[in-house]
Write a structure and sequence with these properties.
This protein is of the alpha/beta class. It has helices spanning 11-22, 55-64, 79-84, 86-107, 140-159, 190-196, 226-241, 259-270, 294-300, 309-322, and strands at 2-6, 26-31, 46-49, 67-72, 111-117, 162-168, 170-172, 205-208, 220-221, 223-225, 247-251, 257-258, 276-279. It binds uridine-5'-diphosphate-4-deoxy-4-fluoro-alpha-D-galactose (UFG).
Length: 330
């Protein structure tokens, strides 16, 4: 039986597909290529250019393939954009989840592993953030992820679909051979933006806020390697296969690094000075986001392999320096 990876041509999706294949799983990809890249997908994997809001197309995929479980990584992800265009996010993310679950329940597919986000917590009430902590998203993106989790919960109760929701913290890095990596248009994430400076693609990086209540005044985040996120999907699949009940987990390294620390680490990795300009705060940025990973460790048996931020940045650098124009260089 196959795993259907929705969003398998995206950054985290493509790394997850690689790991599924390495584990001997049969994989099918559905991706509308609105943000994903055809070149991120192995040519020998069955690929459907399909939007998850197209129920007929999904049902055709389920009719043509024996699908054991769906991995859902097909959502819009830009918190800043979601504030300006909330309906775009509610349509693709929330309505997309509804249609996907309708197609799954109508076709008898009863397992789903979902890419959720630390953004469901909003401004955290304590650090490290525990799965039981309050969820008050501060932007529509985080709100959609929370609603998507709630939809799964009710559908699970009514139709027996079991789910695992994986709340990613800051996904970063790339596969070690540098063959796939992060390529967003426009790029908004810290590490790829920093690496554009030594690539000569930008003059400097702007630090968004230097007056946060943190040791150096810049925001602290929990950077977790994309291969560790991918590995967590396999742990979640095995958990559901062995009868595990629906559940949700933080996926973070448990360590926090400030924007300044990330710039310093990138200078060490690239061997080049990275010019910074000190800017104002970006709206909606919490000062500190660090995951408690205890639950995923205990229940899923997941432990991040990359525990050193320089090693994470080194894998990102390996991708970006060999593909300065992302997938256009493939
Ligand atoms: N930052 C800068 N300058 C930049 C870009 C980012 O200082 O040019 C700072 C941000 O203010 C933030 C940190 O770098 O403090 C990380 O920012 P990113 O945009 O890379 O990531 P976010 O923490 O904003 O968000 C990411 C994902 C979300 C997810 C969240 C969960 O993009 O989808 O992590 O922690 F919800």
């Amino acid at each position: 039986m196959a795993i259907l990876v929705c969003g398998g041509a995206g950054y985290i999706g493509s790394h997850t597909v690689r790991q599924l294949l390495a584990a001997g799983e049969q994989v099918i990809i559905a991706d509308n290529l609105s943000t994903g890249h055809r070149a991120a997908v192995n040519p020998d994997v069955k690929f459907y250019e399909c939007d998850i809001r197209d129920k007929d197309a999904l049902k055709k995929i389920f009719a043509a393939n024996e699908v054991e479980a769906v991995f859902h990584l097909a959502a819009y992800i830009e918190a800043g954009e979601s504030v300006i265009k909330p309906l775009k996010y509610f349509n693709n993310n929330v309505y997309g989840m509804q249609i996907l679950l309708e197609a799954m329940t109508e076709c008898g597919v009863d397992k789903i592993i979902f890419s959720s986000s630390a953004a469901v917590y909003g401004e955290p009430e304590r650090i490290p953030i525990d799965e039981g902590d309050a969820t008050f998203p501060t932007n529509p993106y985080g709100e959609t992820k929370l609603i998507m989790e709630k939809i799964m919960r009710w559908v699970s109760a009514a139709h027996g679909v079991r789910y695992v929701s994986l709340r990613y913290f800051n996904a970063s890095g790339a596969i070690e051979d540098g063959s796939i990596g992060e390529d967003h248009h426009p790029e908004t994430h810290l590490i790829p933006l920093i690496l554009q400076v030594p690539l000569g693609k930008r003059d400097h990086i702007t630090v968004f806020g230097t007056d946060y209540p943190t040791p150096d005044g810049t925001c602290i985040r929990d950077y977790v390697h994309v291969l560790d996120l991918a590995a967590a999907h396999l742990c979640a699949l095995n958990y559901l296969r062995s009868g595990g009940a629906s559940n949700y987990f933080n996926l973070g390294s448990g360590s926090g690094f400030s924007v300044k620390q990330i710039v310093d680490a990138a200078e060490k990795v690239t061997g080049q000075k990275i010019k910074t300009e000190l800017g104002t705060r970006r709206a909606g940025d919490p000062a500190r986001l660090i995951a408690s990973g205890d639950k995923a460790r205990k229940i899923l048996g997941w432990a991040p392999r990359f525990d050193d931020v320089e090693k994470i940045i080194a894998t990102a650098w390996n991708w970006h320096r060999t593909h300065p124009n992302g997938y256009d260089d493939c």
